[in-house]
C-alpha cells in the first residue's frame, strides 16, 4: 500500500492545456486507458468531450480522475462507495484546488498573449 501511495503522491503536474487525449490522461493519472473508459460508465461526473471517435478530457476531468483514483486505490472505496463519496463531497478542497489551477492556466495564457504583443 505504501508503494501505491508513493506513486500517487508523485503524479506528474497537469500541463496548462485545454484538452488532453485519453493516452495523456492515462499517463498523468497512472491509470490504464481501459480503466478510464470503464470509469466513464460508472461515474456520471466524468464525461470527456467527444469529437467523432475521440475523447478529449478537460483539466477538470483530469482532476476528477485523480480524485476517483485516490478514493479507489488509496482510500479503499468500492466503485459504489466512491460514487457516493463524490456526490456527498460537493465543493471539496479538490474542486477548490481545481478552480485555482484553472485560474492559473488562464493567467498563463494571458501572459503569453501579452508577451507576443
List descriptors.
117 residues, mainly alpha, Multidrug-efflux Transporter Regulator, Chain: A, Domain 2, three-stranded antiparallel beta sheet, 6 helices, 3 strands, 9% strand
Descriptive notes:
Strands 1-3-2 form a 3-stranded antiparallel beta sheet. It has helices at about 1-10, 20-30, 35-40, 60-75, 80-90, 95-115, and strands at about 20, 50, 55-60. Strand 2 (about 50) and strand 3 form a beta hairpin. It has one domain: Orthogonal Bundle (Multidrug-efflux Transporter Regulator, Chain: A, Domain 2), CATH 1.10.1660.10. The protein has 6 helices and 3 strands, in the order H-E-H-H-E-E-H-H-H. The mean pLDDT is about 85. It is mostly helical.
Structural class: mainly alpha
CATH topology: Multidrug-efflux Transporter Regulator, Chain: A, Domain 2
Largest sheet, spatial ordering of strands? 1-3-2
Low-pLDDT stretches: none
The CATH architecture term is: Orthogonal Bundle
Question: Helix tally?
Answer: 6
Mean pLDDT, nearest integer? 85
Helix content: 55-70%
CATH top level label: Mainly Alpha
| Overall outline | globular
Q: For the CA atoms, what is the radius of gyration?
A: 15 Å
Sketch the major β-sheet: 3 strands, antiparallel
How many domains? The number is 1
The number of strands is 3
Amount of beta strand: 5-15%
List the secondary-structure elements in sequence, H or E.
HEHHEEHHH
